[in-house]
Amino acid sequence: MPRNNPETVLDSRYSDSEAEALEWPEAARRLAEAELFWVTTLRPDGRPHMTPLLAVWHGGALHFTTGPDERKARNLARHPQCALATGNDLWEEGVGLVVEGEAERVRDTARLSELAEAWAAKYGERWRFAVADGAFVSEPAGRALVFAVAPRVAYGFAKGPFGQTRWRF
């Protein structure tokens, strides 16, 4: 799992003169509170595939689900590198965050049970999952694989003042 104190750098090339680096604990808090994320995976021919999804920040990693036959699951089976992004669509306020890393399938029953509780706590009973055979299960959706992405590098894009922070883990 990532360090709690990654190397933090404000990139002055893309930052206003009064901008300050966003501290990692604040970025992690925003990841934990964000409701909607966009995941980008790589198709077999290298083209990007991007789709919105729900994610839970838990134990120093972002976790998301996908059906075993969905495009992102098939992509991750070949190329586990991916990026998850969250933020708002306003130009001059808020913070956009991007986490890059390698998606690792979560199969451990105890860990999946913890994550199932985290999903229900964050998103409500509609998103309560049971755990069976190394995956989440629910009706009527069926089986969902769970992936964890621990950041290798992450970026924060502050707006107003504009500032780009990079965290290396």
Task: Tell me what the structure shows.
- With 169 residues, the protein is an alpha+beta fold.
- It has one domain (7-168): Electron Transport, Fmn-binding Protein, Chain A (Pnp Oxidase, Chain A, Roll).
- The chain is 20% helix and 44% strand.
- The protein contains three helices and eleven strands; from the N terminus they run E-H-E-E-E-E-H-E-E-H-E-E-E-E.
- The chain has helices at residues 24-33, 71-78, 109-123; strands at 7-11, 37-42, 48-53, 56-58, 61-66, 81-86, 95-106, 130-132, 135-138, 142-158, 163-168.
- Strands 1, 2, 3, 4, 5, 6, 7, 8, 9, 10 and 11 form an eleven-stranded antiparallel beta sheet that branches.
- It is globular, with a radius of gyration of 16 Å.
- InterPro entries: F420H2_bilvrd_red/Heme_oxyg (IPR052019), Pyridox_Oxase_N (IPR011576), Split_barrel_FMN-bd (IPR012349).
- One of its GO terms (molecular function) is coenzyme F420 binding.
- Pfam families: PNPOx_N.
Descriptive labels:
alpha+beta; 169 residues; 3 helices; 11 strands; 11-stranded antiparallel β-sheet; Pnp Oxidase, Chain A; 44% strand
Radius of gyration: 16 Å
Largest sheet: 11 strands, antiparallel
Overall number of domains: 1
CATH topology descriptor: Pnp Oxidase, Chain A
Shape-level CATH architecture? Roll
Elements, N to C (H/E):
EHEEEEHEEHEEEE
Described by its quaternary structure, the protein is single chain
CATH class: Mainly Beta
Strand content: 35-45%
CATH homologous superfamily identity? Electron Transport, Fmn-binding Protein, Chain A
> Termini, distance in Å?
9 Å
The overall average pLDDT, rounded, is 96
Low-confidence stretches: none
Number of helices: 3
Overall, the morphology is globular
Relative helix content: 10-25%
Number of strands: 11
Secondary-structure-derived class:
alpha+beta
